């Protein structure tokens, strides 16, 4: 959206909130001009991250404008939704009184409900900022695989997803994540897309700490939709230069045990794991050669290696993945909604929002993401570094 159109739209929405809230606040407190000032500041600063694109990417002024605008965007988002919810509640109360004949003092709640909107929006924004900027905590998840070979019992994968290196996520944030992951000592590391929000020249230095990720079998990456917005081909080259293994509708076979002197092929295959990766579900819209294909990712995979794990950015890949015969799909994309109430809308686009789910004979784990997108705000959807452990299913 052009900056001018965005500015007009946000100004109109802020005017709506001012008309709905400020008269009621004036009935309750003489400090209502503070709320007016906050709305004015929000309306002015929300377009700043877009205007700052004209300033050098790493210039102090450009970074400051992005920070201020994105924080305002998070506050505005909660304010707008809560204002709508307040109006809906007041309308229901008025209808109950006017049409239903109930004795409902709907007007008595005007000032206190307006104050509640302001307090809740501001409180969730402050808490959400702290949640977003802290280093993601480690979430440990066991994945019960039916018929899992003994050699693969306890195999661990550390999953990172949706870090969104960009306007407010820089190298220091990434280094903290790298340090936390390396302490886990995982067998493999999977990065399931949406790693960046910007071009390689802008973010090369900030993404560089990922070269320090350490796991026995290495670090594997698949593309997310934001890689295609930012120039996927350049990013694929850059990630490979850093030593990360980008899987584009392809797989690798991981030999998990030392099988020197194995007595037969069965012993050899049972110690192997197929780790596949597909391009983003929408990648074909940007490059037909990158059309996502879970079946193609298994091309020429050893048929006797039955433990197969797929990295796919969007949960929407799960249906085809289950048909292709994977035991586990690791995804992200949803952020778990990132902050209320957007988590309520994720199911409109994705079959799964967060956590571990079953689809036919396949498990799918959806990470809430390790970073955040847009406003530095997480509320009700904590970020995570996920440590997944393969275990034998009991039934």
Beta fraction of the residues?
A: 15-25%
Helicity, as a percent range: 25-40%
Order of strands, widest sheet: 1-12-2-3-4-5
Number of separate helices: 11
Specify the biggest β-sheet.
6 strands, mixed
List unreliable stretches of 5+ residues: none
Q: In CATH, what is the class of the largest domain?
A: Alpha Beta
Helix-strand sequence = HHHHHEEHEHEHHEEHEEHEEEE
CATH superfamily of the largest domain: Metallo-dependent phosphatases
Evaluate the radius of gyration: 24 Å
Short recap of the structure:
This protein has 395 residues and is α/β, with parallel strands linked by helices. The protein is 39% helix and 16% strand.
What are the defining features of this structure?
Purple Acid Phosphatase, chain A, domain 2, 11 helices, 395 residues, six-stranded mixed sheet, alpha/beta, 2 domains, 16% strand
Q: How would you describe this protein?
A:
The chain is an alpha/beta fold. The protein has two domains: 131 residues, no CATH class; 256 residues, Purple Acid Phosphatase, chain A, domain 2, CATH 3.60.21.10. The protein has eleven helices and twelve strands. The strands form two sheets. It has a six-stranded mixed beta sheet with strand order 1-12-2-3-4-5, covered by helices on one side. A six-stranded mixed beta sheet has the order 6-7-8-9-11-10. Strand 10 and strand 11 form a beta hairpin. Helix 1 crosses helix 5, helix 2 crosses helix 4 and helix 4 packs antiparallel against helix 5. The radius of gyration is 24 Å and the shape is elongated. The relative contact order is 0.13. The mean pLDDT is 91.
